[in-house]
Design brief:
Blueprint (H helix, E strand, L loop, with lengths): L1 H7 L7 E5 L7 E8 L2 E6 L2 H15 L23 E6 L3 E4 L2 H6 L6 H13 L4 E2 L5 H11 L4 H7 L6 H5 L12 H20 L5 E3 L4 E2 L12 E4 L8 E4 L4 H18 L4 E3 L15 H16 L4 E5 L5 H5 L6 E5 L4 H4 L8 E5 L13 H5 L2 H5 L4 E6 L8 H10 L8 H13 L4 H12 L10 E2 L18 E2 L6 H11 L8 H31 L3 H22 L7 H10 L4 H15 L21 H20 L13 E2 L2 E2 L5 H16 L10 H18 L16
Parallel strand pairs: 1-3, 5-6, 5-15, 7-11, 11-12, 12-13, 13-14, 14-15, 16-17
Antiparallel strand pairs: 2-3, 2-4, 8-10, 9-10, 18-19
Helix pairs in contact: 4-8, 5-8, 5-9, 9-10, 16-17, 17-18, 18-19, 18-25, 19-20, 19-25, 20-23, 20-25, 21-22
Length: 716
């Protein structure tokens, strides 16, 4: 804990004294007070002390630590105070990370990133992180032990951008690994992560085994019962060892033992049999046998083991085959507890999913967060809380509150919290900043903004009838964009806000307001096309493309919001030029086609409004689309891009000749993408300019489905 303080606030590290504190009726607790000119931090464990340390920094040093701006602390003074900060944490387990988080946000992280993240977790009270970095090595070395060649083992392992989905048994060998040295580096990184987590008193959740194996394992184990798992999202079929076959236990135990040799064993093992697929055997007792077999494997390997299971593909008969003390259920979106009588008495963690694909839409009900669902549920077997967002690089306000609610005993006063957040986030107590936060609560963070996010029309694959940008989103804007515009205006009125978080938010709020306006422009352009109103179509489509260009310029001023910066990070994770190209393709494919490349249904799932990505990809698609529509004006037939088959209410990727041409552009872009580097332009100056330019037009925006004239300032 002393090292954590030194890493984060070196200039005041000597001002703190650490002391032990007894748990409060078995619950984690901390207390902070001043004594003899020092700040005394007491806690029953290191995580509790870390929470006390961060609580002091937030309240008396006005800090905000975030994934989006304010990435590091800059504290040079440690003021003394009168009184005592203390807290008892009712949540025993505070779990963090979805498998997808590792793919969308952390795939290419180095130790410096993880070191900062682990400190961040500790300060926010996380004590059970998903810890599967290096699991590629577990598989690689186990396969080598089973007789696979180096190439054979590597080719089975998906690249960093997709490895988490292989752990979830959805796919295998996608943009597979090429260099054993990368495996060795992952072992080194995984060891560092686990050492730091356990040093701070965290309980890592490690990877278990659900049976997914290479098809040719039948050559290693003759006569083994191997089931073909139907294609997931058009990916090639995968294969699963039948958990009731003795070979399942042999392979699973070999993997667990290899994991122990490389990283140690920490008793909690995650796996989900039949994740997003159906069991192949339909007999009455089969699922019970599966539950017993997997539990027996874990118990034989580690008598203190606990199976960690997501609620996403949970099956009652599997659950009830496992003793209650040997299972922990993660209700990742807090929905299944209501359907299962709180999981029939099994321990579970109440989760918050919030985000899909790390899409950077401003979204989420902070009122629902502040009400504290954990306290309202009041179930004895609900042992904690969890954050399972698919990505973390968006919605800094929402996540600041979400992390706090991991350890809160009751509801919080949201008005007071927002005022405090503005002070911490921006380093200023100006009234305009608090008002900006109030307007965010009334708009993008209102109670209406629950469930699916509003998709970005800019990032959508163009269509004459557009209903979704990606699976699990929708087009409906569930708030008045004028309120978000006013929030951005209030924010930019501040005269004393100078933090990096302020600059990030100025960019982000303007980005979202303009993105929402782009949806209106699309509707106007399409109305012009349907009614053969050439003037309306041309003015609206040109305004749409101009907005895309200007938005790209704004986003280029924030490196973390640029494609080039993320490509650089992906390349830096590789150890040779061939692997560098592979990792860059991992990233580019995940952002766009997702996969499989030639027949994807998940295209644009992980869309991002990023500088360089808009200019070289999204805007190019829209430009060719509008050009095509312009050519169709003189023709009598009604032109539509709608494909006969639909998937998730979206057009099939190669569903007609129109989209086959798009596919050619998209696949070519994967090989040739060359986005510009971040610019040195002034973010605030550009944000103010765009806000002034578009404010009149946004004020005139009505319901996105209605049609209004294009404002004069959009003709520039």
């Amino acid at each position: 804990m002393r090292n954590l303080i030194q890493r984060n606030t070196p200039e005041i590290a000597d001002r703190f004294v650490l002391r032990d504190l007894e748990p409060a009726n078995g619950k984690n607790t901390y207390a902070v007070f001043c004594e003899n000119g020092k700040i005394v931090i007491c806690g029953d464990c290191k995580i509790s002390q870390a929470m006390g340390y961060y609580a002091y920094l937030k309240q008396f040093c006005g800090v905000n630590l975030s994934h989006c701006g304010n990435r590091t602390l800059n504290v040079t003074e440690a003021p003394l105070f009168v009184g005592r900060l203390e807290k008892v944490i009712p949540q025993k387990r505070r779990v963090y990370m979805n498998y997808c988080t590792l793919g969308y946000s952390f795939a290419f992280w180095q130790w410096e990133d993880w070191e900062r993240e682990i400190d961040f977790m500790a300060m926010n009270g996380v004590n059970m992180p998903l810890s599967v970095v290096g699991s590629e090595a577990v598989w690689y070395y186990t396969m080598r032990d089973l007789g696979y060649s180096e190439t054979g083992a590597l080719s089975y392992l998906s690249g960093p951008g997709f490895w988490p989905w292989q752990l979830m048994t959805n796919l295998c060998g996608y943009f597979s690994l090429m260099d054993v040295r990368y495996i060795e580096r992952r072992v080194e990184l995984g060891k560092k992560i686990l050492a730091r987590e356990t040093e701070l008193g965290m309980t890592p959740i490690q990877q278990g085994f659900a049976g997914s194996v290479p098809r040719n394992i039948v050559k290693v184990f003759k006569g083994v019962r191997l089931r073909m798992i139907p294609s997931w999202c058009n990916f090639p079929v995968t294969y699963q060892l039948d958990p009731t076959d003795p070979v399942f236990k042999r392979v699973g135990t070999a993997l667990l033992e290899k994991q122990r040799q490389l990283f140690g064993a920490f008793h909690y093992y995650a796996c989900d049999p039949f994740h997003e697929n159906e069991p192949g055997v339909k007999t009455k007792d089969y699922l019970r046998q599966v539950g017993r077999a997997i539990d027996d494997m874990y118990r034989s390997f580690d008598p203190d083991s606990v199976w960690v299971m997501q609620s996403w593909s949970l099956r009652e008969k599997i659950v009830k085959a496992v003793p209650k003390e040997r299972l922990l259920i993660l209700d990742i979106d807090a929905s299944k507890c209501r359907e299962t009588e709180n999981f029939w008495g099994y321990d579970f963690v109440l989760g918050n999913l919030h985000n899909f694909g790390d899409r950077n839409t401003l979204h989420g009900s902070i009122d629902a967060l502040a009400e504290n669902p954990f306290a309202r549920l009041n179930a004895e077997n609900c042992v904690g809380t969890g954050l399972f967002m698919e990505g973390v690089f968006q919605n800094p306000l929402y996540y600041d509150l979400a992390f706090q609610m991991l350890t809160e005993p009751a509801a919080v006063d949201l008005d007071a919290w927002l005022a405090d957040y503005a002070r911490r986030r921006y380093g200023s107590d100006e009234a305009c900043l608090t008002e900006a936060m109030r307007l965010l609560r009334a708009s993008c963070y209102s109670p209406a903004c629950t469930g699916r996010e509003t998709g970005s029309v800019i990032c959508a694959r163009p269509a004459t009838e557009l209903r979704h940008t990606a699976p699990n989103d929708h087009r409906e804007l569930r708030y008045d964009n004028k309120l978000l515009l006013q929030a951005a205006q209030k924010l930019l009125q501040a005269e004393r806000a100078e933090t990096d978080g302020f600059v990030f938010d100025a960019c982000d709020l303007v980005r979202q307001a303009l993105s929402n306006h782009a949806s209106v422009l699309y509707d106007r352009a399409m109305e012009g096309f349907r009614t053969r109103n050439v003037n309306l179509f041309e003015r609206s489509s040109n305004a749409f493309l101009r907005l895309c260009d200007e938005l790209d310029v704004l986003l280029q001023t924030r490196p973390e919001l640029t494609l080039q910066k993320h490509l650089e990070e992906a390349g830096a994770a590789a150890l040779n030029e061939k692997e560098k190209e592979n990792f860059e393709l991992n990233l580019l494919t995940q952002l766009t086609l997702w996969g499989p490349v030639n027949n994807t249904v998940n295209y644009d799932y992980a869309w991002k409004e990023w500088g360089g990505l808009i200019a070289t990809y999204y805007s190019k698609r829209w430009q060719s689309f509008f050009e095509k529509l312009a050519l169709e004006f003189p023709r009598r037939r009604r032109f539509s891009t709608t494909t006969k088959k639909q998937h998730c209410e979206r057009n099939i990727y190669n569903g007609n000749a129109f989209y086959k041409k798009y596919a050619e552009f998209e696949r070519n872009w994967l090989r040739t993408a060359d986005p510009a580097p971040p610019s040195e332009d002034d973010t605030l100056e550009l944000a103010r300019h765009l806000l002034e330019k578009y404010s009149s037009a946004i004020e005139k925006d009505a319901n996105p489905n209605s049609i209004e004239r294009v404002d004069d300032n959009e003709k520039e």
